[in-house]
Amino acid sequence: MSYPGYGGGYGAPAGPGGFGGPGGFSQPHGPPPNADPQLWAWFTAVDTDRSGAVTAIELEKALINGDWTPFDLDTVKLLMSMFDVDRSGTIGFNEFTGLWKYIKDWQNVFRHFDRDQSGSIDRGELRDALKQFGYNLSPQLIGLVQAKYASTVSTPYGPPPGITFDRFVRACVVIKQLSESFQRLDTDRDGWVQISYDQFMQTVLSLP
After folding, report:
1. I need a surface site. Which of 15, 31, 120, 155 has the fewest CB within 10 A?
2. Whether the Cβ atoms of residue 79 and residue 59 lie closer than 8 Å to each other
């Protein structure tokens, strides 16, 4: 099993989340040379204003979870920041292709850890996923992540709410980036760092 950003490889499409079906639109210009026809069809469907590039709002409207709920906007912005390589504020077709493959890979990851096929990740499944990614978080931290990224607010009754596909992706990416930021500061690799207030704020505010 390979993980996006944790080992590489791409999986099969569809399942817990992804793009809604393309509409009957045509782009005023044709696809780039050697472009995948299916990916070009998705791109033209998402690019509703026919600008030749996809905005965060267009991407948010196109991405859906397995339960047909729209993607969390913060997750969409995170994905945009990761694949907007030219920092234009939009993603062109080549950037969209990378994003498409990334989401397909995460679909397989989500499907693998959603062992009860509930459509969301519970605390135990989250712990197992993060452990396989190499992050052995304490039960207290697992609980904090669960509460922060749960799709609904916890109540005193019943089990804690699960994490939907979009928020699962965001949680895993944020934990990876937090861990990498800590490792850059932990130069002697002893699990402890001493940083100034300014360094702390820069580290936190630079994360999604």
Report:
1. 155
2. yes
Q: What is the pLDDT of residues 118-145, one digit of tens each?
A: 999 999 999 999 999 999 999 999 999 9
In 3-state terms, what secondary structure has residue 171? Answer: helix
Nearest to 36 by CA among 104, 93, 99, 80: 93
pLDDT at position 21, please?
Answer: 46
Q: Which of 205, 208, 182 lies closest to 194 in space, CA to CA? A: 182
Largest Cα separation within the chain, whole Å, is: 57
Residues contacting 71, CB < 8 A, separation 6+: 17, 59, 60, 63, 64, 65, 166
The 8-class DSSP code of residue 50 comes to -
Compute the distance between CA of residue 89 and CA of residue 86 in angstroms, rounded to an integer.
8
DSSP class of 110: H
Whole-model pTM over 0.90: no
What type of residue sits at position 174?
Answer: V
Tokens 């704020």 belong to: 201
Are 177 and 208 contacting, i.e. CB atoms less than 8 angstroms apart? yes
Q: Which of 73, 77, 59 is nearest to 20 (CA)?
A: 59
